[in-house]
Structures are given as structure tokens and as C-alpha cells.
């Protein structure tokens, strides 16, 4: 249940009828939460909330079928779409070259500046998995992006005596709103929580579309990434949102462009259909591979014959992962749009040059594999990876901006439905159970404290990694998976997890230090993670379950204010 803050003298946001802002008042947020912007968001919610509710119910119905033994498949009713000769609108020249994209949260401000200055072609500013959706993070993120689009964003680091500002040449800005399933409980529309992604999209579009028309979009934009879709009906809703936004702003149809993250197993069977629904607004698809692994487990949660091995073993070498990548590339290039590769989550290892070089070599090999397979670009989590990735992709492309017009590489066979769901191979171990617990708890503790992008064990983790950790432990316990414990086979049980959690919580405390452990939310995160792993029914999303723990309501959007 959301906390409520008491107030003395109060300031309020100027809200239209039917809109109640319960987030803390801050004069810095008021230029974002204007009456016009809130009316625009409310209009989107009123027009599309029925379709969103229907889509979420269809997700639940599909999962019920999977739990009963079905598997995802290509829909016979949309075969005409898959076999048709249609193409998406031409890729805008301003974003033709997307060889390396950096991702990160829309807050903190310094991180936004560094990402735009990183040398990447695109910066995806995230309101989703890399951002803990506290009120302050969301609104500061909107302020940061408004200033970034205007070219005025700066940050003064008093501790270092350094000022950060934009270079003359910066990455193109894409924005990822939250998924359809996430609410925004700090804003009520007609008495119910706003749909989170419509808040993220609506506020950003309302305040920034005009700047894109004149500036970095070269007449097109804004640009978006769209997450967590499972079916083309969800893409159809986004297309309707885009068209309504364009009509309201008085800009040309097809100005808004978006890339869809294919990060759920059901969506890989709907890629043509998703592009078809967004064909006037699409600039491609992306292999959101960490969430895709999470979705594979969630989709097959009731199937004991489809247990994943340790998550460290579930890479692009697995047949089902490689097939997913190849089908995405073929689909995108046939339709004339970008096929974007997956995330390189490594971060520089500053105190060990040999380990750092070994990590960079793994990144180079992964990105060379992507380039040779036909991907047009890829993702990085840290600016330190950009030079190495650019060298790989630019060397392969030989001066071309992308591979959209190329034929599929020789030797790639057609991808079947069975290829996409082939059970992965590899060992399941108690060490894997431990790593899942250790990473999941530390990520969740940081998320509860307001950080959604967390460096752990030389990787930059976001919510996707915590989700994999949670659902894999749940699935192993649910089916009593056999785990290797140093040559001895043991069964995954609640008792084993309880012992592992106790030992791993002690290890976390030793690693972060007693004082930080006490001041952080580690104990709370451990309880939540344990409960999630042992729940009778698997919750859809860890962050959705924990969301109310970071919601703080101020009645009427009020807060103490000097009058």
C-alpha cells in the first residue's frame, strides 16, 4: 500500500478536470506537469484504456493456455501478413546509422550527459528496466530529457569541481517508456492510476515534439523504444497513440518513429505482425535478449521439460537464442528496417588490466557475431565499451550505415517454430541458485532505494537480470530440479533455498560492509525475493509486486511550501 505524506502549507499542480497528481510538488516539476500536458496524457488514457485492459486480459488468457500445455506458435489467421510483400516506411536519414547505441536511465542528470557525449550513435534514455520508478526519478528524468532536447542540459559536480555539458556532436535521443502492464500510481485519472507508459510518452512528446521537427530529428521524431510487448494487438495500440499524438500536435503522420524490443517469447512469433501494425512508424526491432530469457522461463513455467540451465550458460550460442536472432534479422530486412542486436552489459574493470582486456575481448567476439549474422547495430551499457564496438561494426560494414539491403549470410537456414522453443542445454547447479539469489537481492535492494541500473560483479544490471534470477529459482523449486552441488546431486527445495538465502545474505553483508547493509534495504529485499521464489503462483513481474513500496502519496500533489 502506498505511503501518504502529511503537509502543512502546500503548493499544488494546476490539473485539468479528472486528473489528480499525488506526487510531491516541486517547482522544478511544474513546467513538466502543466495543465496542457496533463490534459494530453488524460486524453490518451481515456481513449486507449479499454484496449489496454483487453490486451492485458489476452496476455493472461495466453498464459493459461501455455500452463495447460500449449506452446507459442505462428498465428494461422495472420499468415497473409507474414507472406505479404509490404514494407515499412523508409528509415529516416537522421537515424540510418545505429551501429552502436548506449542505454541508461533518464535520471541521474550526469549520466544522461555522459551517454549523449559517449560517441554512440543513439542514446536510449530509459523510464523502464534501468530506472526505479520513484516520483523523483520519473519527473527528474522528464526535466533532464527536456533540457537535453533543447541542448541546454548541464550538471555541476561540486565534489569534483567539474561541470558537465553537451559536446557539439551528440547521440540521437530515443526514449523508452514503461510497458503496458505498469501503472503510475502518483497520477490518478478519473480515480484510477494512470497507465505508466502513457505518462512517460505523453509528457515527453507534449514538451519536445516541436524541437525534433526543427533539430536533431531532421524533420522526423521524436524517437522511441517500445518494451515488453507480447502480441501485435499491443503494437496496434501504440500505433493509435502515435497517430492521436501526431493529430493533436498538428504534425505529419509517420513523424514519430519507434523500435520494438522483441523481449518476450510470444512476440517472436508476431514480429511481422508487430511491424505491420507500426509500418508507418517503425524503425526496426531489437533483440532484448535478457528479458527474452526471463520470458522463456515465465512462458514455460509449468513445463518441467523446459528448465533452463544456469543463467550464465544461456547465451546466444543456445539454439533457441540463435534462432530468435536470425529470424529477427530476416524479418526486419525484408520489411526495410533495422535489426538491432543485444546488450553488452560489461563495465570496465579498473583495477585489473588483464581482466578488463579479457572482458573487452568477449564483447568484441559477441559483437562480431552479431555483425556477421546481419545485425545493423547493437547495445552497450557503458561508455567504455563504445570504441571497441564501433571498431567491430564499422570494420564489418565498410562505411555503410547498416545492412538493411543485404541478403542473409550464407548458411543460415530457415527458422521454424520448433527452433524458437528448443529447450536449452547445460548444467543446473547450486552455485547457479546462489548467484541468482545474490544478484536478485542486491538488485532489488538498490531498486527499492531508487537505483534501477546497478553495477554488480563487473556487469551493469537492470530489472531483466533480477527477473531471470527470480523466475529461474522459482521454476527450479516448483519442479524439484536436480542441481549439481560439487559432484553431488541435490533437489531444489524450499529448505535448500532457505539455507542458500541465509548464507548469501551473510555474503552480501560481508561484501558491502555492515554499515551499508544496515542502512540499505537488503533485509527487506531478501524477504521479498524469498517470498517471490517460493510463491505458489509465479508473479508476472518482480517490480510490479514491489512497486507500492516506492510510492509516496502527497494529497492533491501538495507538499510543504513557503508561501
TrEMBL record:
Pathway: Carbohydrate metabolism; glyoxylate cycle; (S)-malate from isocitrate: step 2/2. Pfam families: MS_C, MS_N, MS_TIM-barrel. It comes from the Eukaryota. Residues 428-550 form the Malate synthase C-terminal domain. This is Malate synthase. The keyword Transferase applies. It catalyses: glyoxylate + acetyl-CoA + H2O = (S)-malate + CoA + H(+). CDD domains: malate_synt_A.
Amino acid at each position: 500500500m502506498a505511503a501518504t505524506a502529511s503537509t502543512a502549507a502546500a503548493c499544488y499542480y494546476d490539473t485539468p478536470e479528472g486528473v489528480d497528481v499525488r506526487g510531491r510538488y516541486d517547482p522544478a516539476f511544474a513546467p513538466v506537469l502543466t495543465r496542457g500536458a496533463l490534459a494530453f496524457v488524460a486524453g490518451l488514457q481515456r481513449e486507449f484504456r479499454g484496449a489496454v485492459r483487453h490486451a492485458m486480459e489476452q496476455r493472461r488468457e495466453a498464459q493459461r493456455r501455455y500452463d495447460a500445455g500449449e506452446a507459442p506458435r505462428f498465428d494461422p489467421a495472420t499468415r497473409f501478413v507474414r507472406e505479404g510483400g509490404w514494407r515499412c516506411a523508409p528509415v529516416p536519414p537522421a537515424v540510418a546509422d545505429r551501429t552502436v547505441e548506449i542505454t541508461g536511465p533518464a535520471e541521474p542528470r550526469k549520466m544522461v550527459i555522459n551517454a549523449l557525449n559517449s560517441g554512440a550513435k543513439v542514446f536510449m534514455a530509459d523510464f523502464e528496466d534501468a530506472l526505479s520508478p520513484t516520483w523523483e526519478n520519473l519527473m527528474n528524468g522528464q526535466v533532464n530529457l527536456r533540457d537535453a532536447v533543447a541542448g541546454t542540459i548541464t550538471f555541476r559536480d561540486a565534489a569534483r569541481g567539474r561541470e558537465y555539458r553537451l559536446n557539439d556532436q551528440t547521440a540521437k535521443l530515443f526514449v523508452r517508456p514503461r510497458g503496458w502492464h505498469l501503472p503510475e500510481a502518483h497520477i490518478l485519472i478519473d480515480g484510477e492510476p494512470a497507465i505508466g507508459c502513457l505518462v512517460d510518452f505523453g509528457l515527453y512528446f507534449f514538451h519536445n515534439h516541436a524541437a525534433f521537427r526543427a533539430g536533431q530529428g531532421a524533420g522526423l521524431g521524436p524517437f522511441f523504444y517500445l518494451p515488453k510487448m507480447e502480441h501485435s494487438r499491443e503494437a496496434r495500440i501504440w500505433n493509435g497513440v502515435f497517430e492521436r499524438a501526431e493529430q493533436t500536435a498538428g504534425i505529419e503522420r509517420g513523424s514519430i518513429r519507434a523500435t520494438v524490443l522483441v523481449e518476450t517469447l510470444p512476440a517472436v512469433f508476431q514480429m511481422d505482425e508487430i511491424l505491420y501494425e507500426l509500418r508507418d512508424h517503425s524503425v526496426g526491432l531489437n533483440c532484448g535478449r535478457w528479458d527474452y530469457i526471463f520470458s522463456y522461463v515465465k512462458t514455460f513455467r509449468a513445463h518441467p521439460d523446459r528448465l533452463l540451465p544456469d543463467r550464465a550458460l544461456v547465451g546466444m550460442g543456445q539454439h533457441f537464442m540463435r534462432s530468435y536472432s536470425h529470424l529477427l534479422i530476416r524479418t526486419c530486412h525484408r520489411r526495410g528496417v533495422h535489426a538491432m542486436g543485444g546488450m553488452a552489459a560489461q563495465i570496465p574493470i579498473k583495477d585489473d588490466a588483464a581482466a578488463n582486456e579479457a572482458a573487452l575481448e568477449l564483447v568484441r567476439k559477441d559483437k562480431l557475431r552479431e555483425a556477421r549474422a546481419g545485425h545493423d547495430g547493437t547495445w552497450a551499457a557503458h561508455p567504455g565499451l563504445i570504441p571497441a564496438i564501433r571498431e567491430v561494426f564499422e570494420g564489418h560494414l565498410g562505411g555503410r550505415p547498416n545492412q538493411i539491403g543485404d541478403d542473409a549470410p550464407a548458411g543460415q537456414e530457415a527458422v521454424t517454430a520448433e527452433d524458437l522453443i528448443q529447450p536449452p542445454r547445460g548444467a543446473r547447479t547450486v552455485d547457479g541458485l546462489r548467484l541468482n539469489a545474490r544478484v536478485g537481492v542486491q538488485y532489488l535492494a538498490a531498486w527499492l532505494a531508487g537505483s534501477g541500473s546497478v553495477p554488480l560483479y563487473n556487469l551493469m544490471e537492470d530489472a531483466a537480470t533480477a527477473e531471470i534470477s527470480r523466475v529461474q529459482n522459482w521454476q527450479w523449486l516448483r519442479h524439484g530440479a536436480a542441481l549439481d552441488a560439487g559432484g553431488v546431486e541435490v533437489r531444489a527445495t524450499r529448505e535448500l533455498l532457505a539455507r542458500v538465502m541465509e548464507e548469501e545474505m551473510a555474503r552480501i553483508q560481508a561484501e558491502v560492509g555492515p554499515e551499508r547493509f544496515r542502512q540499505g534495504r537488503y533485509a527487506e529485499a531478501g524477504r521479498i525475493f524469498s517470498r517471490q521464489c517460493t510463491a505458489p503462483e509465479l508473479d508476472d513481474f518482480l517490480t510490479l509486486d514491489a512497486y507500492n513500496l516506492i510510492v509516496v502519496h502527497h494529497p492533491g500533489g501538495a507538499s510543504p511550501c513557503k508561501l
